[in-house]
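**Protein record**
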Amino acid sequence: MSSDGNGDKILDSGHHHEHSSKKALLSFFGEHNQGKSVLDIIVRVSLVTLTSFPGEKDLQGLTCYQLLHSLVQQKHICIHLVTLNSWHELATAFSAEKTLFLLDSAHQRSLAQTLVRSASGMRDSDTSSQYVRNLMGHIATYIVELSNKSNFKSIAQQPDILLSVSCMLERLRGAASASEPRTQKAIYELGFSVMNPILVLLEVYKHESAVVYLLLKFVVDWVDGQITYLEAQETSSVVNFCMRLLQLYSSHNIGKISISLSSSLLSEAKTDMYKDLRALLQLLSSLCSKDMIDFSSDSIEIQGTNISQVVYFGLHIVTPLISMDLLKYPKLCHDYFSLLSHMLEDADVVTKCLRAVQALASYHYKETRNGSVGLGAHAMGLKDSNGNLQEGLLSRFLRSLLQFLLFEDYSSDLTSVAADALLPLILCEQSLYQKLGNDLIERQTNPTLKSRLANALHALTTANQLSSSLDRINSQRFRKNLTSFLIEVRGFLRTM
């Protein structure tokens, strides 16, 4: 018992000591600008670490990712940070010191992000923007000049050129990921100035998977940080650039894997493709976000900008490259289906999908009534590699559409077009419809609600003199039936 008491005293003493230490530190840093002096020491030590110990990657990693990175997380610290001569010496070294170009590429990205993020401590937006221009301007100049060289293709594979390009792209990516409202304009200008050079680099380095990935990640981070702030003309420029990037990526078959590769090379190629595909999906998602969050003062329709065209083209490129094996990567799977979900929330997209289902089901129904095969095996179902019969196309559509209408969230404006698709599906798959209806009824434990559901399902296909025709009058009758059916049962079904 005495030992427990001593333990409590030790713990209390430890907490008291910790509290006293924090109080002393806060008191010291808050009086007579001692905190600013400590900041200065930290920055100077960091500068020495980065410039004088080129082979110490772990030490440099701690400096970039933890020490310097932590200094720019709070604006009130940045306000003091950007007034220090040591901080401006670090920024100057970043721009001009050759030793810092020998840092690990990921460290350079982190350092660029940290230096740009410190601009939040500047007194106004103009000062912040000029700081970013001074910090990053040399990188844009280098990339533009390099891409314009007449012999660029012949020197591009030289180790020093390849290293420089990779470093510059990492720095651009770091700056792009640090974008915030007061530096947004400067970072947009930075990205805009290298649009064409980026396309040249993609053309030249199309077989260098590491460089391709860096290019894509810079574009992803840049677009993600900019798209919601851009005015119509700027948005048009960015969207057109993304379209050209996607076209170039597709034209060179970048990302496609040869089946003749050895197992080790095949595994490496799959990893490269996984990274590329994730980057492309993230780019498409960023473009889609313009529809949800838009801080611009005018409409993109003014410029005739069609973001959806770019997104669909991107999906046209990406989807054939995504295999079942690649979908085993959780992050890729999440990004892919998140993008599809976002697109399918668009009422116009859903309407077009339902119209397509209506056309398929109507065609099959009319053809089979006339004695033809219609969609044939695609409607009847196919056997998989194990010999198991898989449900046909129309059966799957019927299940999905009923699930959507009864249990999902959607606009009531879709009810009519959904009815037009549902009627031919029911006529094609009557036995499945009866089974699904019976399953719903059996799942309902409340006798009153079970009776209501049974009556509503019966009325859906019999009320208003509904027939088995797909003419306009019968379709209008079914629309009324479906509306009444959903009003009657959707409320209590969604609480099951």
